[in-house]
Amino acid sequence: MSKAFTTDSDDEENTFDAPALPPGTRNYITPAGAARLREEVDRLNEERKHLGTSVEGKGRAQTIERRLRQLIDRVEALEVIDPATQPKDRILFGATVKVLDDGKEAEWRIVGLDEIDLDRGWISWMSPLALALIDKHVGDVIPFLDRRLTILKISY
Q1: Which among 13, 45, 80 is the end of a domain?
Q2: What is the total count of domains within the chain?
Q3: Tens place of pLDDT for every residue, the chain, 156 residues?
Q4: 145 shares a domain with 90
Q5: Are residues 88 and 38 in the same domain?
Q6: CATH classification at residue 133
Q7: Residue 69 CB neighbour total at 10 angstroms
Q8: Both 91 and 150 in a single domain?
Q9: Which of 75, 112, 120, 126 is most buried, most CB within 10 Å of its CB?
Q10: Contact, 99 vs 108, CB < 8 A?
Q11: Does 72 lie in the same domain as 10?
């Protein structure tokens, strides 16, 4: 799960602030990612309703308001793309791609900015690696930085 969807045990937001979208760019996201963003908005709105007027409550309310402003902008720009509807023969948004990189296999999933999780191999569709992979097919060999990647498998 992306850091954008987790909280610390002390109830402070431990959020991953996704990079800003270039003006006019849609916020491509998978259905699961969109659901997590919307669930976070709902959770924060619900928490805000139950805050008291104590100093701690006011401080938490400010944190919630700041996070909600970030989330609302992201949610309003969402364009949900279901990976299951993508053509299976080429790499597009939502694809999981297995490559051979210098004799070693690596696997990457191309997701939205709000879904990035490098520990899981989830990279943004706007990243240089994803841009190098988009529209490629199994068997293609692509130059990337100082390496050559061979596409072994594409799945959705």
Answers
A1: 80
A2: 2
A3: 444 444 443 444 445 567 777 788 888 999 999 999 999 999 999 999 888 777 777 889 999 999 999 899 889 889 999 999 999 999 999 999 999 998 999 999 999 999 999 999 999 999 999 999 999 999 999 999 999 999 999 999
A4: yes
A5: no
A6: 3.10.50.30
A7: 10
A8: yes
A9: 112
A10: yes
A11: yes
> Which residue range(s) make up the domain with 138?
83-155
56 token code pair: 């701690």
